[in-house]
Structures are given as C-alpha cells and as structure tokens.
Amino acid sequence: MQAQNLIVQSFRLDEADLTANTAGTMVMDQNGQKCALIKVETTLTGFSFDAGSLGIVKTEQKIGETWVYVPEGVKRLSIFHDGYMPIRDYDLGMTLRRARTYVLTLSAEVAKSAEEATPTSQFVIFQLSPAHVTLDINGERIPAQNGTITKNLPFGSYDYRVEAKDYLPEVGKVVVNDPKQPVVVSVVLKREGEENIITVGRVTFNMIPVKGGTFQMGATEEQKGEARSDEKPVHSVTLDDFLIAETEVTQALWQEVMGNNPSRYKGNDLPVVNVSWDDCQAFIKKLNEKTGKTFRLPTEAEWEFAARGGTKSKGYVYSGSNDARDVARYSADSNREHHDGPYPIKSKAPNELGLYDMSGNVNEWCSDWFGDYTSEAQTNPQGPATGKERVYRGGSWWYYGKSCRVSRRNSDVKDVRGVIGVRLAM
Fold it and tell me: Which of 130, 151, 332, 425 has a beta carbon 3.0–4.6 Å from 298's, enabling a disulfide?
C-alpha cells in the first residue's frame, strides 16, 4: 500500500471571520490573552498538531473543519495523522495575531515513485491589501478574491505588479524553486502621500523626506557661548536629498525586528535604549531583509541638517525652538529625581521638518567615526575613515539642556550601551 502525503493548499488570514474574537467561540491562552484560531479545512479527522514551544491551547473537531487554537506569535505548525506522512514545521508565512481567524486548507495525495515525484512547480500565495487589487504576473492579470491569490507556478523567476484604483502600484520579483511549501508574498499598497509610511509586522513608522541643500555646520551664531571646541570651526556642508525617521526607533519596532528588547525602561512607544553602535547595525541588517529597503544610520552632517530643520530652518538653538522646554526632554524638564527613563515618542513639539525628539529624550547614534572639524567646504561628508569612537547626537532626558543643542557633539566606543538609541535614515 502506498503512503499518502498531506498537502497544504493554502493558508490565509480571514479578516471577516470573527470566531476567534466572539464570546462562546474565543479561547484564552495560559496568559489570559485571546488565542489565534486556525480553521483547518479538511474532510479527514484524527489530526494532531504541534506549534513548537508556544504549544497548542485547544483543538475542536467540527464538520469539515478542525479548529486549532494557538497563542499569539506562532509562525510554524506541524500536522500529524496516522494514515499520512506528516507535515513538519510548516512555515505559515506570517506571525499569528491574537483574536484573529486563519484558514488552512489541506488535501492528500498518494505518494509517487521517486521518478514521478520530481517536482517542477510550486504554489505561490499572494496576500494583498486592499482586497480589490489586481495582480499582473508575467503579463497575466488576475483579480484578487478577498485579498488572496493562490497560483501554482513552474519553477522560475517571475515579475509581478500589484495595483488598485487610488493606490500606488508596487512591483516585485518572486523566485519559485522549492516545492516543499508555498511561497507567501505579502503586499500592502499605499495611497498617494503614504509612500514613506513603513509597516513591519504590527509596527508602523514614518520616514520624512529631507530636501538637500547647503548649510553652515557647527558652532553657528545662535549656539553662542555654549559651543565647545569640537563644534568648531564652522564649515559649509552640501547634502543630497535623503529621508530620516520622524522619531527614534521604538521598543515595539526593535522587538518586532530583533525578537528582544534590551531597554532597561520598558514601553512599546518608548525609544529603544541600551543599544550599541554594533547592535544598531545588526538591527538595520534584519530590518532591510524584512522590508527590502536600504535603511542606515544618518551621517553626522545629515543628522545636524535635519535637526536644524533642513531648508526650512529658522536658526533655532534646539531642534525646533530657542526654548528647550518646547521640544526636548532633558534633566530639568524631566525632573529625573522622580522620572527615571525616556519618555514616549512625540511627547514634545516637532521641528520645522516635523521631526520629533532630535533634541533630548535619548541620544542617537550616527554612522561617522568621531573626528575634528576642518574649515573646508564639504559635500556629503562621511566622517573620518577610521577612529576610536562613533558619533552620537541629540542629548537625552538625563542630560542638561545645553547638551540638546543642534550642534552639540558626543562620541563613545561603538560597543558601549547606555542612554543611546537610534534614528533611521535612507
């Protein structure tokens, strides 16, 4: 008798199904949180399931379905049945969220001989938003059904384009070469004006365009007697256009990308701290892998130009004001004897570009090695080629107000961890 294989035909989130969030059918996990529900569509019974270290909370047999309740965070599922070859560690293509309902469709087929079983194609699941999009893949136009398109494609490389009325189109490439499990491609289209809003898992952040220009960097007139020697001489710097994040990287974003939170003071909307320069490089590498983008640390010149308000600068001492209390969380403002730790992002006013907390709250790593300024004009400076310490900027809740000035410089060895966070550029 030939063995039979179980096959996952499709897996998707069903936004319209409220079973996992409805009294009578929702189930709580051991931490008192609502479970995610996977509805396994199959006419077979007698299955068992394994979700790894997070475990299975409850399984219920229904007509034509098996309901599997799991905690939030599950990414893989193993499926077992006495009469079939098991599916081990099937990658669901997403991280399951609490109180959401997902649909997994199973089928079975008789295992073929080794010669017959040589695969030549693979299922690709496109998970698309908004639900009414159209997918164009190598010239074939396919309208989505409730935001999902499943297509079996021969091995190869395919260009695709996703478009919908009133949204910005998105193009990409998918490589089909592994028949063991479906390829999952997730595309969320943005409306015009939202193209710089970045979504990573459950976290969204905004990148602000900065128009390039020429500015005077260092101890300019408004910095007056507070300026230190390492802020001199003032020199002309010309920068190309770039983007910089509206806020510091939050602990929620760091957790979403890295799976951990090194901050001493916890809170999803607090800036991440206790991260070294090297930690930030590892974070950016993973973020780029997840998003397909090219985030990086800002150069010291980009950071100061943005903090000054770019081409919209009004020549303030601090980033957005001549009064630190308007825009900065610093020692006197934060009353550090009674509040120990950073504050939530956007708790003060933004600067001329709409950037928050460039003065105060937490220091921010830059890409440059620390070095002395020269009087020569520069274009897109990257800092010294080598050095002993990396630059960080901005001041923090722990520092005096004068440390939050836009030209104030700080540096430390790149493996130090303290009241330093990170702001992204690209």
Answer: 425
Tell me, what's the pLDDT at 181? 77
116 found inside a domain:
no
Please tell me the predicted confidence (pLDDT) of residue 281. Answer: 98
Global pTM value: 0.60
Query: What distances in angstroms separate CA 97 from CA 33, 100, 149, 381, one per listed residue?
Result: 11, 6, 21, 44
Looking at 188, 212, 243, which one is the last position of a domain?
A: 188
The pair of structure tokens assigned to 333 is 């403002």
Q: Is residue 338 part of a domain?
A: yes
d(CA 77, CA 33): 20
Residue 386 CA to residue 299 CA, distance in Å, equals 14
Quote the CA–CA distance of 176 and 157 in Å, as a whole number. Answer: 6
Beta bridge partners of 274: none
CA distance 406 to 309: 10
Residues 213 and 283 reside in one and the same domain: yes
Where do the DSSP E strands lie in 350-425?
A: 363-369, 378-379, 390-393, 409-412, 420-421
Record the tokens describing residue 391, joined without a space. 């630059």
Angle at 131 between CA 125 and CA 137, to 5 degrees: 45
| 115 occurs within a structural domain | no
Range of the domain at 309: 203-421
Same domain, 374 and 333: yes
The CA distances from residue 413 to 68, 177, 205, 288, 418, in Å, are 50, 44, 29, 25, 11
Answer whether the bond into residue 182 is a cis peptide, omega within 30°. Answer: no
User: What is residue 300's three-state secondary structure?
Assistant: helix
Domain count across the chain: 3
Pair 289, 397 in one domain: yes
Task: Report in angstroms the alpha-carbon separations of 325 from 249, 270, 342.
Answer: 22, 19, 15
Residues 157 and 221 in one domain: no
Radius of gyration (C-alpha) of the chain in whole angstroms = 26
What gap in Å lies between CA 171 and CA 156, rounded to an integer? 17
Report the SS3 class of residue 104. Answer: strand
Q: Which residues of the chain have pLDDT under 70?
A: 1-3, 109-118, 192-193, 333-339
Q: Which two tokens stand for residue 82?
A: 């006495």
Is position 276 within any domain?
yes
Tokens standing for residue 132: 């009414």
- CA distance linking residue 137 with residue 199, whole number of Å: 24
